[in-house]
């Protein structure tokens, strides 16, 4: 769901439904096909902990049994679903003039159960901590750059907008989009101020 520098809730909703329709044929029965949609929305949501229990509760199911069945015993072709998603991403993000931007983000953790958690250096804390480090990617497009007054939509901002506009729709979508622009304007100011301080400091 390439966003460029704008966010169109109707377009994002349509894109999500297109992707769900594309993978629907990989599920032999109706229930897993319906449930995978709830699972994906749950994974994209702002739940603090994401597992079969929390996502099932969030989706309004009485028990986690259905989600557990989907991931453990239901008949569906995971390899073909992965291929479908990969093709979808390539169709929407492929651009000969695109520049790949990779960012490493650290998330300090208290426990040890999250995937990838270990004692390691993270810039978030500025020291070695029990943390999960994720590498995030974004694409800058020559033909559709963000306005100079806004930073490009980050992965976190896209997820926040997707949650508020699609996963958990609100009536004041325009208000949410104004907040998104406000955050990005202030990120530009912060970045500019940071670069000025960096340039002014002695090496």
Automatic annotation (TrEMBL):
<dbReference type="InterPro" id="IPR038721">
    <property type="entry name" value="IS701-like_DDE_dom"/>
</dbReference>
<dbReference type="InterPro" id="IPR039365">
    <property type="entry name" value="IS701-like"/>
</dbReference>
<dbReference type="Pfam" id="PF13546">
    <property type="entry name" value="DDE_5"/>
</dbReference>
<feature type="domain" description="Transposase IS701-like DDE">
    <location>
        <begin position="33"/>
        <end position="136"/>
    </location>
</feature>
<protein>
    <recommendedName>
        <fullName>Transposase IS701-like DDE domain-containing protein</fullName>
    </recommendedName>
</protein>
């Amino acid at each position: 769901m390439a966003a460029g520098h704008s966010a169109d809730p109707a377009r994002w909703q349509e894109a999500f439904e297109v992707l769900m329709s594309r993978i629907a044929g990989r599920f032999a029965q109706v229930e897993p096909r319906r449930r995978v949609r709830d699972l994906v929305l749950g994974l994209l949501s702002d739940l603090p902990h994401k597992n079969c229990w929390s996502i099932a509760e969030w989706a309004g199911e009485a028990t986690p049994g259905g989600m557990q069945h989907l991931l453990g015993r239901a008949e569906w072709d995971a390899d073909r679903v992965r291929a479908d998603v990969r093709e979808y991403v390539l169709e929407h993000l492929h651009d000969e003039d695109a520049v790949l931007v990779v960012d490493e983000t650290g998330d300090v953790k208290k426990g040890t159960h999250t995937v990838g958690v270990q004692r390691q250096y993270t810039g978030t804390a500025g020291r070695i901590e029990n943390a999960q480090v994720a590498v995030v990617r974004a694409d800058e497009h020559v033909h559709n750059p963000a306005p100079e007054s806004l930073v490009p939509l980050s992965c976190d901002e896209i997820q926040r907008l997707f949650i508020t506009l699609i996963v958990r729709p609100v009536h004041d979508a325009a208000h949410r989009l104004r907040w998104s622009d406000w955050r990005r304007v202030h990120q530009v100011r912060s970045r500019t101020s940071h670069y000025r301080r960096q340039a002014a400091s002695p090496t």
